[in-house]
Amino acid sequence: MTYPYLPTRWLISTPDLSDDPDVFPLLPGQTFVAQKAPTWTTTVRTSASGRQVRSNASSTPIWTFKVAYEFLRDRITAPELARLFGFFNTHQGQLGSFYYFDPSDNLVTNQPVALADGQLTTFQLTRTVAAGTANAFVEPVYALNGTPSIRVAGAPATGLTFGPYGSITFATPPAEGAEITWSGSFLYWCHFTQDQLSPAQLVKSLWSVDGLTFESLKL
């Protein structure tokens, strides 16, 4: 799929994410995330006897988010409504894509990436959900918030570059059997799930939004 507004940077280094054109703006008046839900797509086939066969083409879920705003000011000195309109329209509703910084879920520490085989030079960064529990599962990270710390066999890595979709590439293959880990912050790669933004006017120059929904993207 081709997006008209696709971020060309996969390593975000701006000091204030709220002012980054590729990052969903964090505006005054935003309440806590109203919804965050993993969604799977399971195909269920039922035979005449009632026997069911279930399958899933993906090993990771799509995350759905919903945010709400108790107030958005529409003033020259506080153009929050205009900023939200601008971001939504720039991305043409559901058509474009952007990054979302989840304030409560954005960090990894010493996250395993892979055991080097002495030949591969490119690796996909990941994060573990529910790490340290019996239900832990791993999913890819597509965008980075700031330059992460990469270690090979416990030592800081050198001679590497950060590529698109959360990939890292070493100039030379890490030694066979060496564990590659990373620590840092990440963002969700998302798109809106609606084509209409419908704020309600509370009083003059003051608006609210019950819910704005978007979901994570995958390769």
Describe this structure in words.
This protein has one helix at 80-90, and strands spanning 11-12, 35-39, 42-46, 52-56, 62-73, 98-100, 107-115, 122-124, 126-129, 137-140, 143-152, 155-156, 160-162, 167-170, 179-192, 200-203, 206-216. By secondary structure, it is mostly beta strands. It folds into two domains: 11-42 and 54-101 and 190-216, no CATH class; 107-187, no CATH class. Strands 1, 2, 5, 6, 7, 11, 12, 15, 16 and 17 form a ten-stranded mixed β-sheet that branches. The longest helix has 11 residues, at 80-90. The protein starts with 10 loop residues before the first strand and ends with a strand. The mean pLDDT is 91.
Pick out its properties.
three-stranded antiparallel beta sheet, 1 helix, 219 residues, 2 domains, globular, mainly beta, ten-stranded mixed beta sheet
